[in-house]
Amino acid sequence: MTTKTRTAITIESTVQAPVAKVWDYWNKPEHITHWAFASDDWHAPKAENDLRTGGKFSTTMAAKDGSFSFEFGGEYTDVKEHKLIEYTMGDGRKVSVLFTTVEDATKVVETFEAEDENPVEMQREGWQTILNNFKKYTESH
């Protein structure tokens, strides 16, 4: 059996908010539904999150016109409050999210394994757009 080596993609953003707020807005379903989508014609109508090692999460991402939706989810493999979240997505790809305090802000660095269907740059742009939505939402609320 051969193990496939996946391309790791890293994105980041510095959010002008303390780490406790950034952590809550990243993880609480009532906030996730306000930022977990890549364009204004999409939304996240439902989110569930059991934030603990072994816990599962799921976010519904859907086109606002009802034409398409999908579940983005997985299982947590490591959770260190205000510092680290690692999880495995439903398709087996791994994701790591680091939270680091930088002066009065929080740097969020997310690394994920690329899938095989779409170009790496397209995946990077999509995930970065969602992270930018997170930053904008967190800083404005």
TrEMBL record:
InterPro entries: ASHA1/2-like_C, START-like_dom_sf. The lineage of its organism: Bacteria, Pseudomonadati, Bacteroidota, Chitinophagia, Chitinophagales. SUPFAM superfamilies: Bet v1-like. CDD domains: SRPBCC_CalC_Aha1-like_4. Belongs to the AHA1 family. Residues 17-138 form the Activator of Hsp90 ATPase homologue 1/2-like C-terminal domain. This is Activator of Hsp90 ATPase 1 family protein.
